[in-house]
Amino acid sequence: MSRVTVIGTGYLGLTHAVCLADLGHQVLAIDVDQDKITKAAKGEAPFFEPGLEPLLRKNLDAGRLRFTMSFPEVAEFGEVHFLCVGTPEGECGQADLSFVEAAADALAPHLTAECLIVGKSTVPVGTARRVMSRIRATAPAGQRVELAWNPEFLREGFAVQDSLAPDRIVVGVTSLRAEALVREVYAAPLAAGVPLLVMDLETAELVKVAANAFLATKISFINGMAEICEAAGADVMPLAEALGYDARIGRRFLSPGLGFGGGCLPKDVRAFRATAADLGVDSVVSLLTAVDAINQGRRDRVIALARAVAGGTLAGTRVAVLGVAFKPNSDDVRDSPSLAVCDRLTAEGAAVSVHDPVAMPNAARKRPDLAYAPSVFAAAQGAELVLHLTEWSDYQAIDPAALAGVVARRVIIDARGTLDAGLWSDAGWSVHILGRP
Q1: Residues 84, 115, 264, 342: which is the catalytic one?
Q2: Does residue 84 carry a catalytic annotation?
């Protein structure tokens, strides 16, 4: 098995390091954040991801995974180095590549032997070749340092599964040797039948942002249809079901609701739009601008509906919010549609009480002024309006008749459309669902 390193131990990097070790490789992971390294070395994941922490501890105990803060140690240890640092959204929507450049600059002076650097971060097209030139300019090994790009396709809540058994592996290379090394690293999933798609660097860079842009477009499309249905008195749910039977369209991600959020989809759409603008492809700029606008508009629609069912004003209204993570099975509140709705509720004078199974600590760091409740029933105590904003399975299991006993008014907005509306209605609730009459 290979000796590989992983640079960056955030969500992508730590998951990748743990899963590479579980595939049998000797893995050394590095980060400049001492706290991250200390916690990871003790088997503590700094974020919630189902199945990750037990796998982290398993591979630490097996001696296949170690952590360091030393770039010289990393350079000496590995033949393949995975670059897994973040590319946050910049001021004008473009990807901020400062962490990628800093990692490359920190590693390059210590590369004295032939090696392969494999980028996994989501970057604008053209970044890989610029990074390769940057590294070769200062690496003692010079042209013997090669670079490949291997975009990640992790879904929060399913990251371990997506790492160990991905639906495809995409890699951009410039040589057969680089391809061979990548094949060696991924030998186990390839042997299990996972397809490997080998291409040039630029195409590999575009695959990730194109995939996210398409997914975002599909989600925004069905949410646009929900707005049409509301205006026409139609029902978006059977509409989505009928569309999904078309094999050219498919049912997945045709679920109308509050829209997408998180640390990837929104920033990747905006970064791709910035890239399209730089390349002069105005049609793509227009498309992605509309996708982003529809998505952001869903938050406005929830507030408008909440205001309407509250009698025209939210001032003084006691609101219980169910879910602040941007999606279930995650504690991530980056660009959370739910947290954005909470911001607007409080701005209009509502008293907001929040519950989430795992994301409340992260939400409290962003919005310490909100009230956080230890249970759904505590959050709903005396509420005049309940908002279901993150589709945790916990909330689908709520007994609406029991919850009715603690609220002041039996009014709920199901912004995700995943609750059993009939069950809630039978319990005396007034149920409002986006895109449904």
Answers
A1: 264
A2: no
